[in-house]
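We close this part of the discussion by returning to an individual protein. In the encoding step, the backbone of a single protein was reduced to a row of integers, each denoting a local shape. The sequence in question and its structure tokens are set out directly beneath this paragraph.
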Amino acid sequence: MNSLPTWDTFSARWPNAAASRFVDAAGLRWHVQVSGTGPTVVVLHGSGAANHSWRDVTPLLAAHCTVIAPDLPGHGFTGFPPADKLSLRAMADSVRELLRTLDVRPDVLVGHSAGGALALWLAAEWPDCAVVGVNAALAPPNALMTLLTPAVGTLAGTGIVGFLTARLAESDFVFNSLMRSTGSIILPEQMALYRAFAKSERHATALMSMFAEWNLPALAERLPAVTNRVTLIVGAKDEWVPVASTEQVAKRLTNVELIRLPNSGHLAHEEEPNRVTEIIMRSLPPR
């Protein structure tokens, strides 16, 4: 069995580790990176990742802004909540409480994949806050996954799904195939960090519990009421969040811009950090 990576063993090779701190909020101990000064940008990673996902974007933004980059509940070095606290609504509530604890009011909420769904859910809290989604996972899963989700949710509580997922991640073929399916090419050191967490049974259990509790239809119902300025970045090579699904979701938003990156996949912010940072910077309030 692979144990959960710890900060003591990973801090020396963790990106932007000098900005890391641990904060107690919403009943959890959070790993969060705080860097830079100026308007506040909160960056939320996707499922199965941690704030290492923003390794190159964070310092670029921090040259102009205050950047808040947490590990989400059950991810990275942040504590693990009960399974029923891994729903979209509950996780958004936890992130909101973290920001209150940090005395932060975001000017821009940025989210990758599942983090994009969180950012849009949180948007109603701060109507003057801009939102940037990077291959944001906003559409419900396909029909097969819709059928499987209840079963995943039931089994996730037993730990069986987490055990099987972690064991699969030990296979070079399975893990490499999974990463190739993102349509992205990323640094080997980033691949190693993704895999270290994927091989952890506890991390995999939290991930699958989160997946089972993720209520995207509820988010879809909220979208027409979102008046925030929204920018949706889509990687044309993304096989996880098809461009067509993002285009359909965009039609439900009242103030949205869709930007296509023709050479990027699902991990567009890791492949093109300068371009993604440039787009985020456009959403900052005027000085």
Notes: Residues 57 and 149 are 33 Å apart (CA to CA).
